[in-house]
Amino acid sequence: MPDQESTGQGSTLITGIGELVTNDGDRDGFAAMTGAALVIAEGTVAWTGPASRAPAADTVIDAAGRAVLPGFADSHAHLVFAGERSAEFAARMAGRPYRAGGILVTVEATRAASDAVLRANLRRLAAEMLRQGTTTFECKSGYGLTVPDEARGLALAAEVTAEVTYLGAHVVPPEFAADPAGYVDLVCGPMLAACAPSARWVDVFCEDGAFGADEAAAILAAGRAAGLAARVHANQLGPGPGARVAAEAGAASADHCTFLTGADIDALVSAQVVATLLPGAEFGTRQPFPDARRLLDAGATVALATDCNPGSSFTSSMPFCVALAVREMGMTTEEAVWAATAGGARALRRTDIGRLGAGARADLILLDAPSHAYLAYRPGVPQVAAVWQAGRLVAGAVPGPRP
Amino acid sequence: MPDQESTGQGSTLITGIGELVTNDGDRDGFAAMTGAALVIAEGTVAWTGPASRAPAADTVIDAAGRAVLPGFADSHAHLVFAGERSAEFAARMAGRPYRAGGILVTVEATRAASDAVLRANLRRLAAEMLRQGTTTFECKSGYGLTVPDEARGLALAAEVTAEVTYLGAHVVPPEFAADPAGYVDLVCGPMLAACAPSARWVDVFCEDGAFGADEAAAILAAGRAAGLAARVHANQLGPGPGARVAAEAGAASADHCTFLTGADIDALVSAQVVATLLPGAEFGTRQPFPDARRLLDAGATVALATDCNPGSSFTSSMPFCVALAVREMGMTTEEAVWAATAGGARALRRTDIGRLGAGARADLILLDAPSHAYLAYRPGVPQVAAVWQAGRLVAGAVPGPRP
To answer: Which of the residues A21, A130, A393, B189 has an alpha carbon 20 to 30 A from that of B275?
Structure first.
């Protein structure tokens, strides 16, 4: 434990924390302390422990019994786009099924939009996420599907996050409808060359109507050769090869995982691929929810993310995803909150976020509630009172005494 | 249409409204205008129409293409209580079924709480509702279950709303476990006499484990004799007589309606009893959702409400209920928003709220979205930007131009 000196100039003590979710216990998984305090210094967590033993600091904040959590890590979002699809949503709710081809509506609008329009929309969504407690988010391209449009999307994404994903392989664009192999060549060749400098990750939508197993494997291999680590859209709309492709490619994460066989789960567990579940997509397309319980019981690492996009899942709310995971997917409140914080960090191969132990980045949420369980116990209610990113208060405010 | 003069001193023009939900068309049901404006004067709606023809006003607000809706009317909430039941919630999510007896945990905490504690909790929840767009809410007693505790609960509720409901018949308290008939006598006699002056409504939880058909009918009749209009908790946990009792008593509303027979629906329609659906309760107890489509197709009037309470449904979010109604209950976005506004007004027999036509109370919401559909299209995302109650801005702020 550091002494008072080590908290340094500009340190902040948050004390009176009813529940401090640290995800930093002896065992891997959810961990929390009650009656706790936390010290932030130089953008990182300098100390956590019992409030009664907290060191001095330059600024003291009283949490008044509220809960403090790591900021959410949303490892799957599509935020570079123009236009909206609320009419398609309403029609789908009235009975029309979801099809991957709806993506092309957004592709058309995105190609036609100016940089300024795309940037304003992206920044509006990023700010909205931050207000809801998401302090790290991944952002994919995938609505450009030409070399310049994909490169533009990634450059814009890189302005707002370090977790930038090249998703040229979202769907085959109409101009390649007669030559899908030619589009795969473009994705693996000139488009990748133009995009790789802005990206950390390569992703592929491996699904009927999008890309098959061999195409997906080729795209991930090309991405890896260009220095990009792999993630995969897998098994969203039906059974298929996505999870297996992810495992064989050593992907960080297989995302959706709604339709998995036992062999798929074994492959994910063996290859230590995180299963990232996106319940907003099932909510928004009225599909069955993925079975998180089955994955957890098999030893898989599960993350939760929003899949925020204008077609299948236009929520940016990690609290909403936590509530759905508990109601619909067999997760406990602890498992769901771990999946939305530490799980997202795993899916992004990050060790500096998703936890609140000494040395972690000081990304944290003050809930206007006494425990993490309230995210599921009070669904839909905005309960994120204040958000710190790298030690700086970036959204909300610290409320007064809690009645 | 009034001329400019009639908007008077202190009038406010909201113009540039992308979609103005009026619920005030020629036909009964959802109605909206695009490219609209609205004038508020003296706490009421003075004018609505095309933005191009809007009269002058003292203050002008630019909605910048956003949607304006009537404030939500939440016709079913239990806000006078102490304590919380997040551990019971978490256990239930892990597999333990919901039982009405859990109410007694809250009864014990409520009886033990000071007026100040109850008032602070009630006001916190009322403010939270307002921030989420609920400009009218009903509030029940039912966690006191003694003469002084029920009377206290209603007096506190009457401090914050005109829609106060006497629910002495929530469950039989433990001290009457051996004499439930004696408790019904108390509810119909001295407790009613002490409570009626603070209340507008009488309610009864008609369900196995709570009160049977004859008891419920007797309680509603006694309430009516004391000047209280009837509403009923009906058919939440299984089939039963609740809906029929509500119809026979001429109740304004039968609430929950999760397990209805065809005959139940016919009875509600014939007696013009509103079916108030509370999807937060099904979400929070993992029960099947009520079938709104079946009710609507049979000609029933459907309302949506939160059932906000610390046991079965601790959400205060009408937007969340709208999203669930669309995803889970077969309602269109128009039907769900009508049910959350005009439907709630019907369930409270109010004609001054739930609509935005000339003469209505100026209770309205500015969404940070271009249409009402976004409440379902973007589930979980806080989109209520500003709220007016009787013409006064009471929560949020008018945002700048929308990107």
So the answer is: B189
